[in-house]
Amino acid sequence: MNDIWIIITASLVAANAAILGSFLIMRRMAMVGDAISHAVLPGIVIAYFLTNSRASFPMLMGAAASGMIVTTFIQFFNKKVKLQNDASIGISYTFLFAVGIILISFFGSNVDLDQECVLYGEIAYVPIDTLFIGELNIGPRQFWILLTTLIIIVSAVIMAYRKLVLTTFDEAFASAIGINVVFWQYYLMAGVSLTTVVSFESVGAVLVIAFIAGPPATAYLLTHSFKRMIYLSILIGIVCSIIGYYTAVWLNGSIAGAISSVIGLVFAIVFAVDLFKRRQVSRQVTQTSN
Fold first, then answer.
1. In terms of Cα–Cα distance, which of 44, 26, 90, 67 is closest to 230?
2. What residue ranges define each of the domains in the chain, with the CATH number in brackets?
3. Spatial distance between the Cα atoms of 168 and 191, rounded to a whole number of angstroms
4. What own/partner pairs with CB < 8 Å and gap ≥ 24 does 238-245 have?
């Protein structure tokens, strides 16, 4: 049963990340997840200082606050200072990550925090942390957190799908017809922050980033329909979770590392096939023109 819970947990993270990652890929902001996953460190440290507790709720609140701060920085540098997305992301998250490292180093003797646990998580431990209703075990806590997050993300995207798509593909047109482009950017970034923060505790930053970027990028090569891209991203993420988990069991290695590697391998295969098809079409066009 532990195997099933681990796969379900990874699949929920994959679904959350795929939905939002599809928008980020089209906006050329796939590394926002990386920025948020690193920028949460100062929020976690400050939450620990304020509450003197490593309980999940204050940690998540501190991480969420840091996530929104880095999102604000990215938007400010991008829209006001006119920096490119990659530069805005790089400056914002490295600054906050460095602040977190300094806080831990400066107050190191008083802080009982495992930096590797905070940043990388361990999905293998998910089945151990369970919830109870009375004496009834209803399953891992992370499963219910991620399922609730998925419901929130799906509902939010469905309600605002048209405006999110317009601001993603044509900001100028969206602004011309009266849509508040900045608001919907923050709306999307809030969802990315929520997904990243609730996921990193269980699956770790590396796997969250892999889920946000890998399956949507792979799906992008397979279809020209954005809706189909989202569905394919979810499917690819879930399939990679299953294959990656059993690969890790077979090799007796890291589950997150195995899933991330499978995601990368699947992308490489699809990219190679797509490149081969493009060259074939190019040759046929050249032969026809001659």
1. 26
2. 2-125+142-289 (1.10.3470.10)
3. 15
4. 238/11, 238/14, 238/15, 239/266, 240/14, 240/214, 240/215, 240/266, 241/7, 241/10, 241/11, 241/14, 242/7, 242/11, 244/10, 245/3, 245/6, 245/7, 245/10
Rounded Cα–Cα distance for residues 190 and 242 (Å): 28
Q: Taking Cα atoms as reference points, which of 120, 164, 141, 202 lies closest to residue 20?
A: 164
Rounded Cα gap, residues 232 and 220, in angstroms: 9
Report the 10 Å Cβ neighbour count for 215. 32
Q: Which residues pair with 50 in a beta bridge?
A: none
| Two tokens, residue 129 | 């942390």
Considering only residues 64 and 184, tell me which one the structure prediction assigns the higher pLDDT. 184
Token pair of 176 as six digits: 């011309």
The CB density around residue 178, as the number of other CB atoms within 10 Å, is 6
Q: How many CB atoms lie within 10 A of CB 224?
A: 7
- What is the three-class DSSP state of 272? helix
Read off φ and ψ for residue 84, nearest 5 degrees.
Answer: -70, 160
pLDDT reported for residue 183: 87
Residue type, 31: M
Does 233 score more than 70 pLDDT?
Answer: yes
pTM score: 0.86
Quick: pLDDT tens for 83-122.
777 788 888 888 888 888 788 777 655 555 555 555 556 7
Strand-pair partners of 140: 130
